[in-house]
Write a structure and sequence with these properties.
homotetramer; about 20% strand; Aspartate Aminotransferase, domain 1; 2 domains; alpha/beta; 7-stranded mixed sheet; Aspartate Aminotransferase, domain 2
């Protein structure tokens, strides 16, 4: 069945699998010390224009979010996030299980607002009683957000300046970062992100890889004995090559951007298809995820022919669905969708 | 200086100290197995009209809240609380440090609303994706709340019924429970609280004791090897007599109620004093804490003559102060206050 | 360079990669709910002769050990292991980071002794003061052990009986289980292991897979909401297919046994090669790892021509090396080794 | 009944209770900011001859040990201790519950040996694979040990030098420190302990106080936001005066030493009484705890007349008992014992 259910319903981009096959019999050092992991890191440092960046590869987003908060926060600190931030809603309490509170701010299409952040930080440090409270120790943003939206350059640097003022790191969850980088408009580039954020990850799982995320510490700030911490979290791969080879492939000759640009372009066509047929959007985004508002009947009919992600029920009569594109989405898929609509 | 700063600025009620002195040379078993701890438990069971209750004594409120959540929640569960709940705001992240998320509901003068709780629980179990979310595993209420307000019988039993429906425990933080029990009006009695809640504690530290809280499991539901858990949390006293003797004294001949009734009566006089002089209340309560709204100038002048707790700044021109009474508050104190006002 | 450094220096067996390529474009449900994961589980249940087994796939050994102890132990319990057990020595404190103590027993060629286990359990429950101690809550064994040795049927069932007597689970770390199952001699079969153990894992990473371990709960004892726990540990893969397809391949037509039998046979030849040349063994094993004792000079010379794992220094003049074979070891490799020796 | 069961069977020394009564109605700031806590700290700094020491008061030994390890160890570090160290045996896994491994060394009458410590540290840092291991991050000693024995000056400074060499803190659990300071012989003084150790605590609970331990950071090394950490552990007292007044009393005019000198002198008489009657010692110590070896029959008879602590069963025919003296032990008690023996 035609499916726009998510951007991780297929395996990996075939080029990535091909590289795994080609290199399969090479005898490589384990635990991420192999030559492909080294090369991938070098290429990412270049793409970030950040020669001092320290990088490591992890398996998935929640794992990365958990390890970042566990290693960068002091035990008396929490992490600030939008109330809709993935770490606050859909990670099964992984952050709290590591001992840290998520301090929430209101969300605006999935984003936090610099003024509201400034207010929270000021209030905290004004409170005479704050030794009894959780210290704000990091700011978490997702980009694209859980709603597919993006921070503008200005918004990102405003958050960055605030974090700098209070000496707390700005962390970007880039599970779908490629779709942000490839988006049309006034969007931060990878070097700008490396400059604005203290730590961020470049998503592989949801952008062409079989699995894996590239975690980047851009300010010479990788926590001490980070490999031991990864091991302690149960996240160190014996065959680190699995991640190194994938990211080496993604960051060779602009391949990551190519994949994501394709997906964003397919998403633009998808928007057009819905718009032409008069569908209402819950949220139009510049990235690979679109949110469409459907009447119940329409939803029931549509889902017999094409798979979408169910997002939420807005009232008794309407639902919101999420349509996602990826490297695997074809023009034919979109033609088929157009016909169904 | 005259002070209504809090209900824990003095030591213990002299009668309690006297008992510590009288029993001091008796050779007693350690770790809470002494005869006074046994007697205190028996008297509390009687006061709760709950013969099957299992009781233990701990040192303070945060310690009790942490141990209750750590031992009664499954690792994938969080605890529901008002956004102003003490565990959410002023316990330095103790709950999260034990691995659990605080799931917040709006506060209404410090209380949660049964309808909003029902909605949260329904939504959670409807969400198809809830395996990625934190399970609601307990409901936390404070009574009196952090604002000195009380749940009515009806409100309490509505929450209790909801918890029963979803098979999650209702936990009452009774740091100042005595002031609630002694309050005038339609307020739940101790046996009613024992019936409505699965677990609750009767506060000593802020109601006449030097230290200590009596934690009551009223449904034959004390977690297995609870003493070992207390030890593991660093909360087991070698000289458990310190807590046993205090609670034995408090629960002999209605002494706990006597102390708290006095404090509530003093608070009523304090309210009168402010009201007569035309002061505005931020919140009038039936218990020993009152919240008064002051203009900045007035606040600055007043605080040179009498100590209050600073509560919050409502706008550029006003502050809220908290005035608390206790067993140690005298009629003379209130006369002095009246003169100052 | 010729290498017997470990059993995870290559990628995956080519047949496994081929299956990943073949299935790559199929659109599959995420988070382990795909058809290949289902099939793999069914095949493993059959191989274990254990229709009620509940199975899930995880990424690596430390992750699996951590999740098993975290989910199966009560907070007041620790896990018993040989002092050389992997969880006690080389997992960076992952078990303690999850809150649990490793209670050690002496090791005998990597194994624990049933009599010593019985003694530990008896002593614990006799101690009147045991409420202040860590409760023994699980027995951990590795099979093959970290020294490549195996438990006999009798030894395994003796441990199993003890665990049954004290109602604590027996957990087998099977990082290299295939090499045990394929070994010649009186060794427990997979159905016997499923009968003797409460939980165990079948290692993929070190036995032909790119990554992945199959965790088996054989007594209808998978912890509640296990998927949520995996997510909370940061161990839930979006593309669960990666693990499902690999284990489906490994458990089709006896392929896992075929790979491991080959490796064990290669190890037998390797032993012969060393023995013929008069080398001394630190430990001869029936599995794919062999431990050879070398004089320093000999070690320095040898390591310029063939890679081994450095195991330990026994005195100022000798070292122990570990030689490991795998699916990728060829007869030609062994001929080459023989020539070098 | 005559009892030498432990040094915490009575309440507090009457002088301490008297001070609690005298100061009871003073209105004091909470959370340890009161004037008595300040004074007690000043007096302890003087007694330690360590003007830069930072001090705080906690309730009990396990709580103190847990907070020290939790705040001074990095997450990838464990604490080295004798296998008989209290943190390794009788704290219900409190250290592991805080995420840290206890790395054990053999015990020699309860003490660790500097050579064995040196070996452990050297081996660890030599191991090429140590990123997969728990880093030794602190050395824990108890003084007196769990066996009542003491480190000599030389032994203590040897451990201190090793810790200095590897830049890890030396931590002394001084649950019964007073009895060590008051002992006859070549024993470290309090200023020497403050010089040798990075952190230590001066026990109150088992040396005359109702409860409480004074934790001393002697190297300007109190962890950041320590009060918040204490709160997070559930260990912050609202009425901090309870601890401040007790330690102020203990450290006024040498009272702590006076109490402990008395107890040690009583223990010397107790030794004499047993020795004269021909009893065998399991361990004779210079402090307030003595360990006597008894035949079963003798033990059964004796325990009907005088209470001792049961220590262990050495074989089928013998048990070891512990006899402890304290401030409350009188010459009459010892006469009574002599008669019974």
């Amino acid at each position: 069945m035609l499916s726009f259910e998510s951007d991780y319903i297929e395996g990996a981009h075939p080029k990535i699998l091909a590289r795994l096959v080609e290199t399969n019999l090479e005898k490589l050092t384990g635990y991420g010390e192999d030559i492909y992991s080294q090369r991938a890191k070098e290429k990412i440092r270049e793409a970030c224009n950040c020669p001092q960046a320290r990088i490591c590869f992890l398996m998935g987003g929640t794992q990365t979010n958990k390890i970042v908060t566990a290693t960068m926060l002091a035990p008396y600190e929490g992490v600030i996030a939008a109330e809709t931030g993935h770490i606050n809603t859909h990670e099964a309490g992984a952050i709290e299980a590591a001992g840290h509170k998520v301090l929430t701010l209101p969300q605006h299409q999935g984003k936090i607002d610099a003024k509201e952040l400034a207010h929270l930080l000021e209030q905290f440090f004004l409170d005479e009683n704050h030794e009894h409270m959780v210290f704000p120790g990091m700011v978490y943003i997702s980009h694209p957000t859980e709603y597919g939206t993006l921070y503008s350059r200005e918004e990102l640097f405003a958050l960055s300046a605030l974090c700098g003022k209070y000496r707390i790191p700005l962390y970007m969850d880039g599970a779908r970062l490629g779709y942000a980088l490839a988006a049309v408009g006034d969007v931060p580039s990878l070097p700008e992100i490396a400059a604005a954020c203290d730590v961020f990850y470049i998503g592989g799982t949801k952008a062409g890889a079989l699995c894996g995320e590239a975690l980047v510490f851009s300010k010479n700030n990788m926590p001490a004995h980070f490999m031991t911490r990864i091991k302690q979290h149960g996240a160190l791969l014996a065959k680190g090559r699995l991640l190194g080879i994938q990211f080496d492939t993604l960051f060779t000759d602009g391949f990551y951007m190519e994949i994501c640009r394709h997906a964003d372009a397919m998403a633009a066509r998808l928007k057009d298809a819905f718009r032409e047929k008069g569908y209402a959007f819950f949220l139009e985004t510049p990235t690979n995820q679109q949110f469409i508002l459907l009447e119940n009947d329409c939803y029931e009919m549509l889902k017999t022919k094409v798979a979408f992600g169910f997002w939420e029920r807005t009232d008794d009569h309407h639902v919101v669905i999420r349509a996602a594109t990826s490297w695997a989405t074809t023009r034919e898929d979109l033609e088929a969708l157009r016909r169904i609509l």
